[in-house]
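Support request, please re-run this one:
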Amino acid sequence: MLDFGTINELFGSMSHRGDTTVAMWRCGNDWSTISSQQMYGRVRAVVALLQQWGIQRGDRVALVSENRWEWPMIDFAVLALGAVDVPLYQTLTPEQMGYILRDSGAKAVFVSTRLQYEKLLAAGEIPSLEHVAVLDEGNFENATSVPDVLTQAAGLEQPDAAFDALLMETKPEALATIVYTSGTTGDPKGVMLTHRNLADNLRYSTDGLRIAAGDSSISFLPLSHGLARHLDYAIYGNGGKIAYLPRFDDLAGAMKAVKPTIFLAVPRVYEKVRQGTEHKSTGMKKKILNWAIGQGKKHRKELMEGKTPSALGWKVANKLVYSKLKEAFGGEVKFWISGGAPLGMDSAEWFLDMGIRIFEGYGLTETSPVISRNTFDGYRMGTVGKVIPNMEIRVASDGEIEARGSSVFGGYWQREEASKKEFTEDGWFKTGDIGKLEDGFLSITDRKKELIKTSGGKYIAPQPIEGKLKADALVGNAAVVGDSRKFAAVLISPNLQALQRWGAQNGVTTKDRAALVKDPKVIAQYGSIVKGVNAGLEHHETLKKFFVVADEWSIEDGELTPSMKLKRRVILEKYKDEIDAMYGGA
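Re-run finished. Output below.
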């Protein structure tokens, strides 16, 4: 079990492992490594820069970057001084970036690339901002070059008593980071997390996950998101190494090169893997795939218990099919983690039948982030596992999950009234999620604010229905609508690449997206998908109408959060006319 009181203690432990590799990064076609002593020297060099700037304990320092090895270097350096880091998603617009920098009162900011630097220039006046540094090489007016700063790092790699003492000056109750919410329901709010919040969450959430020295992971989910940063800390604390991947499109190649032992992704990544596997399986390959899945279903009980079936049929299926899927992940993964959003039961069962047990967990930025998780010794598919020991939960009369414990945040930055609204009168944090607790295992059914209430008074949870729709390769995303309406309907965002392939195979050759989604054959195919999902729903949940939009929803276009959850408010506004049309007019 990890036993650190602060993230600084974790870094201190990590940084004195000599030439042990702690980080990897892509350099051309090869992967370069960074040892713990090299990371130590580079962090010290950045700390010297921050001290030169006059950064004091409690000052806010922002970081706007893709996932790259410099991210933890800046993070550890800011925390080493007792300052507060403010991570920003690299997908933010200049307006959004400016809002967070002004709201947090950031005194300095590190940006990764010229694109981020130019967005900063376009963000408008930021009165508190005094210093800017850029991670990439190049000439940037009025900005410090981080590569130039790191030329001094080699001389700082040996242990330094004064620096190590500085690390220990920060106490567990000190503010460590302000993480801004994704703003799905309005302006983002800054979640204040202390070192104790983060350290306690690491200690108790990773117990039972068997993370050990020598383990490795690919860091590709945004580090501005609490879960990705949390896992990186856990691997560093346990003596593992992390390969940083700035571009999601490079993930397939990275998995083969790095061969990670731990794989963390949001559900959409798993859904894409499933869709890709099914799409490539045609003719005899499809028959073999379906047969192998059938073999897996016969042994679900054993697989859920983490056992390897001994039946001949399962062994043959493993050699022909399951092992090939695992090889796509690098062939060395010992456990798979899903977080950030609910993993649909259909996808969980599909992967289990393929011999892959996905560990789901649950939490929020406000809970540092983990509340519950499945483990090797406590696993139940379709749940988010058992509550970690330093946390408690209760289910309110309306089904909302409430939590308390040492991982719960203290409030939102400069939002005292908003903070009060998030807690009950007796001090429990209101998660906004609907769920239930059975035999110690927690299940999440939906977001409280996203429950749909029809004009007939029936409640519908949209996420499970959307998950069933997304199990089909032709569905990129889906948004169930129907609040205050007579019935439920759905907007479908297609997987355009898969749809175009399907069209070519079925005589629909148009390249125009708008024409493609309106083709009668295409509409009939999506109608068949909706009909199949409806077959497993209660009468009041069934989708009476659907509309296929011509857009693939994305983070960049604003329909999805950085953790790939739907921004329903944005979607409802963007497709207001289409929704009205499904209900016969406004």
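The two ends are 57 Å apart (CA to CA). The CA atoms of residues 69 and 244 lie 6 Å apart.
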